[in-house]
Amino acid sequence: MWKPNQPGSTTPQAPEPTRPSSVPSTFETATARPSVPSASAPAPVPSGDQATIGKSLIVKGELSGSESLYIDGKVEGAINLPGNRVTVGRNGQVAANILAREVVVLGKVRGNIQASDRVDIRSEGSLTGDVQAARISIEDGAFFKGGIDIRKPGSEPTRSTATPEPVIVEA
Question: Which residues, at least 6 apart from 66, have a Cβ–Cβ distance to it below 8 Å?
Fold first, then answer.
């Protein structure tokens, strides 16, 4: 056992780190260095992966995948993210049917929403369409026009959120 009073013994010292030369190694160039966040950069999302559709982007067609989605631009078509969250930001304009675990509406949505967990329409949000969800929250000031179908969690969803067939009325 080492004792500090023994003659000839010294305390162990950590080796001095090597200083980088003026030319960075391949490891240093491949390693991402943390950057200082700017005032215009969005805050990082604390949980999992999240894709973002920015203000200036317009997407037409079907979106599907296995990560959460934040929409601040325009989307037309269908959004199919069954196990994830879809957030329509304040600038977001969505004309699509949405299938997700959770949907948060801060912008404008025209279309039906089918959520396995919940739908949250915030005070500045607008939703025109039918909702199928286990839970729904509509804040004061939010706009909602449509029907609500509360489903027990784990129940088999119906496919009523698909685009309805046109109805022909004869005069």
Answer: 81, 83, 84
